[in-house]
Every structure is written in C-alpha cells, then in structure tokens.
Amino acid sequence: MERASPDGMIDFKGTFYAARCVIQHSDPYKDGEPLRAYLAEQNDHSLPSDVLRQALSQNIYLPTTFIFIAPFALLPWALGHLLWMILSAGSLLLAAFLMWNRGSKYSPLISGTLICFLLANCEAVLATGNPAGLVVGLCVVAVWCLIEERFVPAGIVCLAVALAIKPHDAGLVWLYFLLAGVPHRRRALQTLLITVVLVLSAFLWVSHVAPYWMQDWHSNLSAISAPGGINDPRPASVTGNIAGMVIDLQAAISVFWDLPRIYNPASYLICGALLLAWTIRTLRSRFSRRGAWLALAAVVPLTMLVTYHRPYDAKLLMLTIPACAILWAEGGPIRWIALAVNTAGLVLTGDIPLAVLGILANNLHVSTAGIYGKVLTVLLMRPASLILLVMGVFYLWEYLRRAQETGCGLAQTTPERSQSALKLD
Fold first, then answer.
1. Contact 110, 340 (CB under 8 A)
2. Which of 9, 247, 248, 320 could make an S-S bridge to 384, C-beta 3.0–4.6 Å?
3. Neighbours of 412 (CB within 10 A)
4. pLDDT (tens digit per residue) in 281-298
5. Are 68 and 165 in contact (CB under 8 A)?
6. pLDDT of residue 86 exceeding 80
7. Which of 24, 46, 61 is the last residue of a domain?
8. How far is CA 281 from CA 184, 298, 421, in A?
9. Global confidence as pTM
10. Residue 124: domain span
C-alpha cells in the first residue's frame, strides 16, 4: 500500500523531513523547508502530489515529536521509514496482546475476535506512517502496566512519551489516572514530570534552531484548518470524502450547520457535559480494576470526539475491549448490547469498512440540500462520529450505573459471580 500510492508514508515523510530540518539547523515549520529537504533526495522519491506537497510545506507536529523521529531522520530514508513501520506495527501488536491478556480472563473468544478485527484494519496507520501507531501502542501498554501493577516504571515512561507526541490522544487517559486515587495520582504526576522534561528539551532545541517557530507553527495550523484544508472537519474539505476523514463530533454536526461558530460550541457542549459526569464519577469512586476498564471504555470514545482525530487515532478503542469482555461475562441482555456497540465501533472506524462506505457514498452522489440528504450523508460518510458518541454514552451510562461499586467487583452480581470476579481481579 505504501509503494502503490504516491502519498505512501505521507505522515511520516512530514515528520521525517521536518526532523531532518532541525538536524540541519533550519526551521521545520517554515513554509517549504521540509519540502526542500524532501526534494533534495529526489533519487529516493517521486515528485510529490498536491496533498503530499501540502503536508511537507505545513508541518503541524509538536517539537516533542522531533526528539523521537530524529534517530530515524539520521538514517537514509529507505532504512529509516522501514524501521519506523516495524516499530509502529510492533507496538500495536504488543498492545493488542496485552488487551487480549486482560480480556481473556473474562471472555477469550470475544476479546480475541474484536482485537483481530481491529488489527486487520490497521493498514492506514502503517501505510501513512502516522505517529498514532506508536502512540496508541505506548498508551495501551502504559494502561496495562499501571492497572495490572506490573512494570510500572515502564508504563509511566510509555505514557509520558505518548503524551508528549500526541497529547490529544493520550491526554484523557492520563487524566483518568490523575483522578483515580492516591497511588495512581502519584504515577500520573510522575508521568507529567517526564513529559514536561521532554517538552522543555524539545522546545529549547527547536527554539535554538528557529527562534520564531511558534508563529510559523500557528500559521500552518490555521492554514490546514481553514475551509477546504486537510484538517477541516466539513464535507467540503480535501479529505472530507475519503476513508481517512476527520472523525470528531464536529465532522457530523457540520453536515447540518456548516459554520464553525455553531458546530464547535455544540461539540464542546455535548462532550463537555459527558466528560463532567465522567470526572465526578471517577473522583467519587474507589479504584478497582473492573471500574478502571469501564472508566477508560467511556472516556476513549470521547477522546476521539472532543477535538481533531482521524480513524488511525481510533485504534485506541482497543482499550474498550476488556470492558466489553467484562460485560459479556456478566450475562444478561447487557452482554449483547455491549458486544453490538463495540463491534459497531470497531467496524465503523475500521479502514476497510470506511473505504467501502466512501466508495458507496461517492457512487450514490448524495445531496445535502434537504434534511433527508443530510441524515443520509452523516450515516454514509460520517458514521464514525456517530458510533463513537454511542459508545461513549453507553459505557458512561454503565460506569455511572455502577456508582455503588466496591473494590471487590461490579455491583449487582450474584455471590458466586462476585467470588469469581474477585479471583479474576
């Protein structure tokens, strides 16, 4: 897939050549500088497409990304991007194994099936080389380490690195541990300390090379978020009708109201209300492993909805699979609802289903003139946003419903099941 597309490894090319600019003492955020570094190696690349040219011209990644990309940028492109792909795939596989390890204590078949489907839809994150592959893997590994109380120092470092590279992916996961009680709060603060050190080191390095990088970064961010830009959530954007579309809540609301002053506040209001309820519930709870997985299953979909994300970021839904397995093991109607919601969430954020829906929507030529057309557009072209909202509401409802949970397991279980749950916890 990488070699078949003119935009193969597009995201990694942007960070790779931006990091090379810093190494060569040029501004990685100045319009055209990463593109210049790319064209200087013409023997290794074809001429860039318009989308790739824009990605190389308008870098928006935080300076902390360059700390981790720099070792690869010191290598030739052919070797550097191959090692990055292996690292991304390896981190995702390790994360998937750890989630199965936890979910299998409740339902190995359900956990294994859902994880296999998620891994079968990771083509885009590997073919584009987006840092989300590494960030998702590190974030999931960190959660497993901190909840399971194993390799805790490694978990703290993994979460700090994920937070430094993509804070909008790992931020709410980190917030859970900050709110979850004294031992976990201490680890969250240790994570924050390491992150701050990484951020300050990166900012000092880039500021020494390019004193005015902040203004250039802000200009690039404004340019790609402008109407029609790569990060514009509206259907008319450059990536509005492809499988790699923006999946935040703004993307769905903008179909009905195509004005930032409407869809941005509406998204923040909806997500803010849900996050407030989640925060209050977390602060009032006593920590338990089962409760932790339910809390994370509620907040991970909301992470995708609050601000800019794409389907490769949604691989973080891997963290919802243990919660699904827990609910499945409880029995009753809730097991089928949990399985249906989780399956729909993984399908409608998966690379292959989104590609099929994109082809279908383009062939149908759906008009957004009337309310029927708008609804059909959201269902066919923005399904990820809707299912993420459904997942967030469902798991938050389950999390709130179990307000009387204790450290011995979930409420409303039989004595026999409680004893079994205690052993599993």
1. no
2. 247
3. 12
4. 999 988 889 999 999 999
5. yes
6. yes
7. 61
8. 16, 11, 22
9. 0.90
10. 62-208+228-424
